[in-house]
TrEMBL record:
The lineage of its organism: Bacteria, Pseudomonadati, Pseudomonadota, Gammaproteobacteria, Enterobacterales. Keywords: 4Fe-4S, Iron, Iron-sulfur, Metal-binding. GO terms for molecular function: 4 iron, 4 sulfur cluster binding; oxidoreductase activity. InterPro entries: 4Fe4S-binding_SPASM_dom, Aldolase_TIM, rSAM_sf, SEC_C_motif, SPASM_anSME, Sulphatase_maturase_rSAM. Residues 13-71 form the 4Fe4S-binding SPASM domain. Its cofactor is [4Fe-4S] cluster. Gene3D superfamilies: 3.10.450.50, Aldolase class I. Signal peptide: none annotated. The keyword Iron applies. This is Anaerobic sulfatase maturase. It comes from the Bacteria. NCBIfam families: rSAM_more_4Fe4S (TIGR04085).
Length: 165
C-alpha cells in the first residue's frame, strides 16, 4: 500500500458527505470537485467517470519541470496537489511546499532502502533490516562511550547493548 500523496495519480481516497455527495479526496470537498451523489449513481460509476479520471490524471499532468527532473519522482510523484502552492527552485509556480523536506528524507533513507531491497532479494525477512542497522551502528561507534545511549536506537546504554564485549 502507498499513501495517496505519493501515488502517480490520485482521486481514490474519497470523501463522502452525509447527504451522499462523493468527492475524489477530502482535500477537495468543493462544488467544482463534486463527482455526484451515491443515491443517484453507484460509487463504481462515479469513480469511472471522466471527471474522476481527469481529477486523478491532473496530479501527473501538472508536475513542475523540477518535479519531472527529480531523482525521487518515482517515490514522491510531486506529493499531494493540495500542497502545490510554492515556487520551485527554478521559478515554476504550483510546486509542492514540502519538496525540500521530501528530498531530504528520500536522500537519507535511500542507502537503507537499497540494503533492504538486497536483503529481501536474498530471501531475508523484512525485519532483518534491524539486525543490519545494529551491525552498521557497531562499526561507527568511535564517539560513543560506554554510558551513552546506543546508536542502534534501542534506548539502552551502549555498554548494555551493542557495546557488549
Amino acid at each position: 500500500p502507498v499513501l495517496c500523496l505519493h501515488t502517480q495519480t490520485c482521486g481514490h481516497a474519497y470523501a463522502l458527505e452525509s447527504n451522499g455527495d462523493l468527492y475524489n479526496c477530502d482535500h477537495f470537498v468543493y462544488p467544482e470537485h463534486l463527482l455526484g451523489n451515491i443515491h443517484q449513481h453507484s460509487i463504481k460509476t462515479l469513480n469511472n467517470s471522466e471527471r474522476a479520471i481527469a481529477f486523478g490524471e491532473a496530479k501527473r499532468e501538472t508536475l513542475t519541470a523540477d518535479c519531472r527532473r527529480c531523482d525521487y519522482r518515482f517515490a514522491c510523484h510531486g506529493g499531494c496537489p493540495k500542497h502545490r502552492f510554492a515556487v520551485s527552485p527554478s521559478g515554476h509556480p504550483a510546486h509542492n511546499y514540502l519538496c525540500a523536506g521530501y528530498k531530504h528524507f528520500f536522500q537519507h533513507v535511500t542507502p537503507y532502502m537499497n540494503v533492504w531491497r538486497e536483503l529481501l532479494a536474498q530471501g531475508y525477512p523484512m525485519a532483518s533490516i534491524m539486525r543490519w542497522l545494529a551491525q552498521d551502528a557497531r562499526k561507527d561507534t568511535g564517539a560513543v562511550s560506554r554510558n551513552h545511549l546506543c546508536p542502534c536506537g534501542s534506548g539502552k546504554k551502549y555498554k548494555k547493548c551493542c557495546g557488549k564485549a
